[in-house]
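Q: You know discrete backbone vocabularies at least as well as I do. I have my own habits and do not want them to colour yours. No explanation is needed for now; the record alone will do.
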Amino acid sequence: MMQKQFEKMRSGKGFIAALDQSGGSTPKALALYGITKDSYTTDEEMFDLVHQMRTRIITSPSFSSEHILGAILFEQTMDRKIEGVFTADYLWEKKSVIPFLKVDKGLDQENEGVQLMKPIKELDLLLKRAVSRNIFGTKMRSLILKADINGIKKIVSQQFDIAKKIIDAGLIPIIEPEVDIKSIDKKESEEILKSEILKHLQQLGKESHVMLKLSIPTVDDFYSEIIKHPRVLRVVALSGGYTREEANEKLARNHGLIASFSRALTEGLNVKQSDKEFDDYLKASVESIYKASIV
């Protein structure tokens, strides 16, 4: 199964759906979906509601392997079921969509123009659980706010150090050193980031593969060297706060770069929509992102 998923991710057409909103981002995701904070009183109720939202998306006929290669899950989602089946198994067995797991625990305070990941406690246990749940790969996010060479070096080193542990566990890591799209020196940050990523890729063993999730670059096709690198399975782009229309327009100018959108994917979906309205809206969203991802 792992090899089949590997080949699909390497050569398939489509994009990755980011359905991994966690504790901090869940209230905002629910609010955009039309569920306000007064609709729940506990975290448990909140996570039940967001799982209902994710279930509605995943079970929709508009969510299929025709356009979608993979989906990134939140840890709780991995342990929950859809129609009586664990979420990762439902994705692969029912939808032929490859499951990934968000493993980071959020961001540390800003230092040297970046926010490193907080320590990932009990990572080994989490990776064992992921393997037992038939997860294919992982995702972990850090954030670059300024073009500080020392900070960016630390970001990339931390990402690759953890990525090696993930590879050793038998999973494919998605490395996500996001560059803030509002940064005044975004282009300069991307230049430093690209250089550091290429250095670390050269140090990986021949049997090791990673994926990267990057902000859509300021210069079109800027990451083409990374996309073509033999240690890189796929490079995906985050929407980073752009509207879906903006993100699609920018993505379509970057050959070989595919989407891994979260808010841009679910933009416009609402809990009060009928099933037909919901499916039709999701279909239009999925098809537009797919079109931008296959250039």
